[in-house]
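User: Before I run my own analysis I want an independent prediction to cross-check against. Here's the chain; please return only the structure tokens and, at the end, one sentence I can use as a sanity check.
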Amino acid sequence: MLTDSHCHLASHRFQPGELPALIGSARAVGVDRLVTLATSLGDLPANLSIADTPCVHTCIGIHPCDVHHAPDNAIDQLAAFTADPRVCAIGETGLDYYHPAPDGWEEGAFRARQMEFLRWHFQLAAAAGLNIVIHTRDQEGRESFEDALGIYKEFHRGIRAVFHCFIGTWEDARRVLQLGGLVSFGGVATFKNAREIRDTVLKCPPGSFMVETDAPYLAPQPHRGKRNEPAFVRDTADFLAALRGETPAELARHTSDTASAFFRFRSAGN
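Assistant: Structure tokens:
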């Protein structure tokens, strides 16, 4: 059993007609569960529809790069779907300081809008009894991580957060784990220059992390530069297993168990 804990099957880089083959390719290499994440109200219906497929679940949220498009009642619109058994968490939400503020927005105001939406997502997760998926990204430094972690501290007693596509130090991962959260590793961990990330991977105990693709982005070696696909989580998982001195089956088992505990999958037949 292997779980791709984070992918975007409703991305425009995947044609709807090819999804059965993509999911089939993943299952053929032992990936028997996929979590596809909405990033806006616009792709919410597509993600819910994809999650009708056995083995696929979805998370619902507004990506920080999309908060300027979202209406103030976006969270209320998401709330209408939190009881849907296809929905397994809130997100993708978070803070993105990598991309500049969109036209018509001052940088400080755009970051404030992101932080407001992140708190609203946490409040929604608390009300719905769901956990939350966090994105952080910076041009340099780690300000988005620090700001997101600060907001998580306000809610951590009732909600678990996973910091997805984690590329930080062990010390930063440890701070997430101390709050009851998780980290998730994707294809970046397989890159040749990812020494710091690999040190973090080595120090994370079983039960503290998941694996993901973030497909269609950030394909692992040996697929780097190509469109990422859910099947490629097998390459990342096998790489991490070898790094940690575990068998692929051992790593698949404990990361999937961690995914089960975090997402509490509810869909019948999945």
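Sanity check: The two ends are 12 Å apart (CA to CA).
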